[in-house]
Amino acid sequence: MTVTRRVFLKSTGLAVASLGTLTAMPKFLLRASTLNESADAGATAQRKILIAIFQRGAADGLNIVVPFGERNYYQMRPTIAIPEPRSGDSTTAIDLDGFFGLHPSLASFKPLYDAGHLAVIHGAGSPDNTRSHFDAQDFMESATPGVKSTPDGWLNRILQTQPAPQSTPFRGIALSPQMPRSLYGPSPAIAITNLNDFGIRAGRFSGQMTEAFEMLYGNTSTDKVRSTGAESFEAVEFLKKMNPQQFQPENGATYPNGPFGNALKQVAQLIKANVGLEVAFTDIGGWDHHAGEGNTQGQLANRLKDFSDGLVALYADLGNRMEDVVVLTMSEFGRTARENGNRGTDHGHANCLFALGGPVRGGKVYGHWPSLRNENLYEGRDLALTTDFRDVFGEVVDKHLGCKNLARVFPGFKSSPSNFRNFIRS
Prior knowledge:
The protein has 426 residues and is α/β, with parallel strands linked by helices. The chain has helices at 5-11, 27-40, 61-64, 71-76, 110-114, 133-142, 154-161, 206-218, 223-240, 259-272, 299-318, 389-400, 406-409, and strands at 49-55, 65-66, 94-95, 101-102, 118-125, 172-175, 190-192, 279-284, 325-330, 351-357, 364-366, 387-388. The protein has a single domain (5-19, 46-195, 242-419), classed as Alkaline Phosphatase, subunit A.
């Protein structure tokens, strides 16, 4: 099998934990060290970080952030609706503002909401009407709804529009087996499956494959490619000296067992390692509940417990570092307003997103609520869209990351601060 340099750069898994003592520090870490020293000296601001979380499978936003103040919600969901809040009852919705409430499995979110660090944007999503998981995820990760030919993802375009001559190979990182669509593009990014297991994996041929790639890079006539390859393997050699198993979460943080909790734990490791991370991505599946969705208990409740406990652990673990971090969640589309005959929900339209972090103006549900009256439903069945997801993404890109070239990050879309919901502090 022929493996190109591009495939190698896009698929090699690298890993970082805490910094140890080396006889010679790799060039990419010397650059990161220089940046950190400048920041410590007050010459530059702390690096801002965006963590994007994709809930794959189309999460049911109406049972996640519950419009308990609207009677139509209960009429449309006779068996799976979340009961109205009742004082002292942990099996009902958790009141946020007298109209919206959190699913009880999101109880760990409430303190963050009350502290003003967690915000909800409801009625948000893609204007495209597809109900295909594959297409909707592609459109959201490329940030070009209805256009399948977009060559790169919105997170990669952020890196493209933010030149960083002193950057490291770890600007963009995905905690996933493969490079996600949102990070694909010309700006270098790395996919990491596990900090304890990285490198070229080819069974008993792994050593030979590594040597072959080193020769491939060493023999190239292009200085830039040779340098990139050399630094990639230099990074691998450095990372081999790390011991991620020694990492201990701080501030009493306890990550849930499983892929999602482990991914978030590794994001925290990378941030604490100060290796130049700017954009991180991971995902959590299991949201496609056509049957037996449940209400306060069941499939959705279990997913939400894992989801919220993981994010709360990340928030606690990072401590003061969260002042420079925004976590943004998303799902390809929502679910139908009415439950189906299998006590589940089918593919819908608008949804809710969460924003978490120090820069977030939390403690509020943002967006215009379209109501669930029959005449207001999208195509007579779904929550209508009132906030384009690109305006949500754009506000984070603009206000948090400081990238003003929104036309480049969101091609074909007129993203403007006038459309922002102002959930990010200026």
